Amino acid sequence: MTTNLLNIKFARMGARLKIADRPARRNNRTASVISLDVQTDRKGEFFEITKRPGVDVEVAVLDVQPADRHLLLLVREGKDKNKFLCGHDERHWFVAGIPEKAPVGTVRQAKEALKPAEVQTAQARKGLRAKVRNRRKNAAFIRQGEWFFLVAADMAVNEKLILRNEPLTRGNGGKPHWAEFCFRTGGETVYVCTRHRNGVTEAKYKALLAGDPKAKGWGWRIMRRNPGVYVKGHIRHADHATITLNGWHQVLMNTESQSKAMKNVAFLD
Q1: pTM (global) more than 0.90
Q2: Is residue 46 within a helix (H) or strand (E), and if so which, with residue range?
Q3: How far is 141 from 22, CA to CA, in rounded Å?
Q4: What is the mean pLDDT of residues 47-75?
């Protein structure tokens, strides 16, 4: 697809696009030959696609939904095909990689592919119609950005273990969502700092300290990896309207982290 045609497709959903043959501004975040990002200039936000000079990459738009302000983008690098949902959510534009295992050819299918199995089961149980399934609040769930919240009416919580003003983060350096009340159960204990945002095991943590005395000053924090997370009260984020959860809700992140395509995404919310 030509640059002019890509610009036309993005313009149909009300977005600007810039394409450049140069190393991505955040190429330290990806080893891929192409990078997708959301940047800002004096005119506001725009999508940016950058690729390494001399590399043959096919970029095409598979589906555009102007009223919904979303499109589905295909990036083909040799035999590899990656798909991305580009769109507008509340206040800002975003990019999300779609899991390769999902047979996706439309914006609607991409949105469904980004929902974890528990969310799909909940909306099926409620018998939600297609046009209702992607509302940020419906009978099955409440969504804020990449996080889904499902009612956990029978959840028994130890009051002594409730955390206040707890961050919800996917570990990629993006801005966290903040939960007024949070309860975590299960999972693996990990040690987290700015140099190890996804956390390391206790054995790895001890090895790092033994190998480098300065490591003690890296601002470590003990967290749980892949725990069951439940929240209630106000959920805040700078780029989203605050939501209020009455009673405990299970927290689930969308499936973009399961996508190899995320190696191409430089966007941080």
Answers
A1: no
A2: strand 44-51
A3: 41
A4: 91
